[in-house]
Amino acid sequence: MTGQRDRWAELTGGQAGEEYARRFARLAASGHDVHGEATFCTALLRPGARVLDAGCGTGRIAIRLAELGHHCTGVDVDSSMLAVARRDAPAQDWMLGDLARLDTLGLATDFDLVLAAGNVIPLLAPGTGAAVVGQLAAVLRPGGILVTGMGLDAAHLPLDEAPMTLVEFDGWTTRAGLVLRRRYATWSGDPYNDGGGYAVSVHARPAA
User: What is the Cα–Cα distance from 96 to 78, expressed in whole angstroms?
Assistant: First the structure.
């Protein structure tokens, strides 16, 4: 662990797992599509791909990706969220860990896709963004992709203001050896326009 609390922990006290799961259950029951991220990622993957869900929370996306035939590992620092994931999908691989110290978990370095959805990047501990992006890039195979979704303003974040900009984020990915391939405004693939409040980005590790 880094010893510094992430913004998610500051907001929730690390006890949000059950309420977070109930929130998405209510959305699903009301007819909302709660699998947009998984659908987006599957369109980028070959069958049976290896996926790391970084900041997996209650496992909603990783469980859906596994249902679609992919091999998913979930990592999160919030034990209350992981407790829900382990209950709902006990056979899947769930790991408690700090994304800034991903290299201490003994993960393979051949993932086809690493996903950081749900505002994982903006809610990291202050000052750890570049280190986390470097850790995520390091477990990608050559040609593998990093997919991120993040709010860029208060309307799309549980914060008063965004702690970072896309320019800063792209700087972190460049330093990690990744190249921006595509950027969208939604998980449905709507085009992103400069100044938008939400961005879904696809960065790639160049093939060897």
Answer: 7
Residue range 99-145, pLDDT digits in tens: 999 999 999 999 999 999 989 999 999 999 999 999 999 999 999 99
The Cα–Cα gap between 134 and 102 comes to 10
User: How many of the other CB atoms lie within 10 Å of CB of 183?
Assistant: 17
Q: What would the two tokens of residue 45 be?
A: 């993957």
Identify which of 138, 124, 133 has the alpha carbon closest to the alpha carbon of residue 201. Answer: 133
Candidates 138, 78, 150; CA nearest to 106 is 138
pLDDT at residue 148, rounded to an integer: 98
Whether the full predicted model's pTM is greater than 0.85, yes or no, is yes
- Residues in CB range of 19: below 8 A, 6 or more apart: none
Assign 3-class secondary structure to the chain.
CCCCCCHHHHHHCCCCHHHHHHHHHHHHHCCCCCCHHHHHHHCCCCCCCEEEEECCCCCHHHHHHHHCCCEEEEEECCHHHHHHHHHHCCCCEEEECCHHHHHHCCCCCCEEEEEECCCCCCCCCCCCHHHHHHHHHHCEEEEEEEEEEEECCHHHCCCCCCCCCHHHHHHHHHHCCCEEEEEECCCCCCECCCCCCEEEEEEECCCC
